[in-house]
Design brief:
The structure is a homodimer. Chain A is of the alpha/beta class and about 210 residues long. In chain A, about 45% of the residues lie in helices and about 15% in strands. Chain A binds a DNA duplex (24 and 24 nucleotides) through α3.
Chain lengths: ~210, ~210
DNA sequence: TAGATTGTTAATCGATTAACAATC
DNA sequence: TAGATTGTTAATCGATTAACAATC
């Protein structure tokens, strides 16, 4: 089964977060209405989502947390480690590289790349290499996921280079809406200004 | 007219970006099918969105860019300046404070707050004050929008304090799904791990 | 067993797209 | 005028919710 829908996968991530929390505090099973309430969706939505992915619970008995976690992790590809690179070691790029609070070991930021020689360094937790080495690094290490944190004007070029070298999924923090350069590449744009404009609209609307 | 729908407002921001670009390169009017193509939506969508906000074009003549820009800016509240504060002057918080690439003057990040005295400083472009002063600052300056960039465990508390002091819209970068503490507050969560999980799902799906 | 919860189908809701009359 | 584009209504599409039989 193939989903085009981004939202269902976001919910899968959120269900996972919720059940990790309740596992930690000692739960061994969980019901769709409780999980829904804690995640902020309806019980129907929970059961529907699980059903679409073939996740089965126990009639009358809810879902076993360990089984559920295994199933959700499998959907999200968390059984393997994903190596991720970052283009741009400026403010945002370095902040993301320093992000160590992933809840699992399955996502690893392995390298940054920057054109500025002053920023290159092999000493940090995440080394910063010259941008010219990015394409080879992607190929040599079979990297599939990249983060773009370069200034606006370079963003489309960087994306094109990433895709040419084999990257298949990109998270873009540059303030431009990037076009997917090929069918094979999935891009998600995170745009601070647009997010703030959105919030401001809803704040003003209520006045 | 009140829209609950976040997506239409995101598109309004994107239309704005697109027409700013075409204004810069000399366009004075624009057609729905061109604007749609450049923004990545259908022409129907463009006209429908405009129609919902009462934006009128010229039959046969498209939309005048200046009028359109004025109308979109008005929707997004860009006629006034919005002062924004940041809680947390760690990696992410400082990176966001250093973000100077807003396309307009209408969003101003005016202060950061942090519990760590080492991080407080009045010298940067954006001053960093002690966290204990945040609530008073919000009240004294009638701040309505806040960004949360504190560690996970503090996030819900910080949000509660912001809202109590008068903040009405929050952009949360902490890796927890924050509950809206009241009806009057709009919250949007940006979660790096969830974004990456999403991308990884779509990358793996195609394999 | 009786009661509660799942899994799935049907109904509803909302958003997007298509179509086309109006008209510049 | 003829042709092209808007503005809006209707049709379609997709996602969410409700309902309920199955069953533990």
């Amino acid at each position: 089964m193939i989903f085009k829908n981004r939202k269902i996968i976001l919910r899968i991530s959120q269900y996972k977060s919720t059940i990790i929390y309740y596992k930690q505090i000692g739960f061994t099973k969980i019901y769709s209405d409780f999980l829904g309430e804690k995640t902020g969706v309806t019980a129907s939505q929970v059961r529907k989502d699980f059903s679409l992915f073939g996740i089965k619970g126990n009639k009358r008995g809810g879902y076993f947390i360990d089984d559920l976690l295994t199933a959700l992790n499998k959907i999200l590809g968390k059984e393997d480690t994903q190596k991720v690179i970052i283009a741009g070691a400026g403010n945002i790029g370095s902040a993301l590289a320093g992000y160590k609070k992933f809840h699992s070991e399955s996502i690893k930021i392995v390298a940054c790349f920057d054109i500025d020689p002053v920023k290159t360094s092999k000493k940090g937790v995440v080394p910063v290499f010259p941008y010219s080495e990015m394409a080879d690094f992607i190929r040599d290490n079979a990297i599939e996921v990249g983060i773009v944190a370069v200034p606006e004007v370079f963003a489309q070029d960087v994306v094109n280079n990433m895709v040419k070298a084999g990257i298949r999924g990109i998270l873009n923090f540059a303030p431009v809406n990037i076009k997917e350069p090929s069918e094979d590449c999935y891009i998600n744009n995170v745009n601070l200004e647009i997010e703030l404009e959105n919030i401001i609209y809803f704040v003003k609307k209520k006045e």
